[in-house]
Write a structure and sequence with these properties.
With about 270 residues, this protein is mainly alpha-helical. The chain has 10 helices and 2 strands; from the N terminus they run αααααβαααβαα. The protein has a two-stranded antiparallel sheet with strand order 1-2. The protein is globular, with a radius of gyration of 19 Å.
Length: about 270
């Protein structure tokens, strides 16, 4: 969910090895980078729209047509594949695999773009292939429904702000392809400590979890997805914390000491 700047750039063990290839001319590198960038950003927008619609409707917008136990099994696989693969691609092995998705040895420089692209495909798979049960447990009415709409909008606004403060160029993949376009290496900064990051160390995960629960429609499949992904949002940052300590050392340990892990200290 959240890239950690320098930790993504330099894994333990040094640079990410990619397949050996003849160095491509700058023009070719630019065109390839632009193609990856357009694809990544387009899929990112579609994925966010599909996710917003899916959660708002209680996961009733999926195009899957399975029923019964087969629907439950496939939906469960769709729900689990996102956090599992998402976390794996942040590991050293995962980043080596990710780097192979770009030609001409460009995988390392396009790492953030490739990560955003794969994540968007994963989200689209969840919300487009989901098989809805059409079992509505609860649907807000009247003023409660209005409050749910407002809460839903506020939750997504909070997530947008957290992503912005975490480095929007990094999180959306713009950092990778735009650097290649300029003929440069991606410039990774340090870890964020301002804005929402003053109150808790993982506001992106927290805001993402909130979006899963603020909806005017409650269904069994929305409860399933929200439970699994909220658990990921709570436990997933532990892996990120280890990477940050390894990358930033005492600076991050001091940040840990003064800032809460997940729930804010207001």
């Amino acid at each position: 969910m959240l890239l950690d700047a320098k930790c993504f750039a330099v894994p333990s063990g040094g640079e990410i090895p990619t397949r050996q290839a003849v160095e491509l001319p700058l023009t070719s590198r630019r065109l390839i980078a632009l193609a990856y960038g357009v694809l990544a950003h387009s899929l990112f927008v579609l994925a966010v729209a599909a996710m917003m619609l899916g959660i708002f409707t209680g996961m009733q917008s999926g195009l899957g047509r399975l029923t019964g136990w087969s629907a439950l099994v496939v939906d469960l696989i769709l729900a689990l594949q996102f956090p599992i693969l998402h976390s794996f691609l942040l590991s050293s092995r995962g980043r080596r695999l990710l780097a192979r998705l770009a030609p001409g040895g460009m995988g390392s420089d396009l790492g953030t773009t490739l990560y955003a692209l794969v994540a968007s495909v994963q989200l689209l798979a969840v919300f487009l292939l989901w098989s809805p049960s059409h079992a509505i447990w609860w649907s807000a009415q009247g003023q409660i429904r209005v409050l749910c709409w407002v809460g839903f909008g506020l939750a997504w606004s909070l997530l947008g702000r957290a992503l912005y403060e975490a480095g929007l160029a990094l999180q959306t993949g713009f950092l990778g392809w735009s650097a290649v376009w300029r003929g440069q290496k991606p410039a990774f900064g340090g870890f964020p400590t301002t804005g929402l990051f003053r109150f808790c160390r993982h506001p992106v995960y927290l805001a993402f979890a909130v979006t899963l629960w603020v909806s005017p429609v409650l269904t069994p499949e929305r409860l399933l997805l929200a439970t699994i992904w909220t658990a990921y949002c709570i436990l997933g940052p532990l892996h990120k914390e280890r990477r940050c300590v390894r990358c930033y050392g005492d600076a991050y340990r001091q940040y840990q000491a003064r800032t809460s892990y997940w729930l804010p200290k207001w």
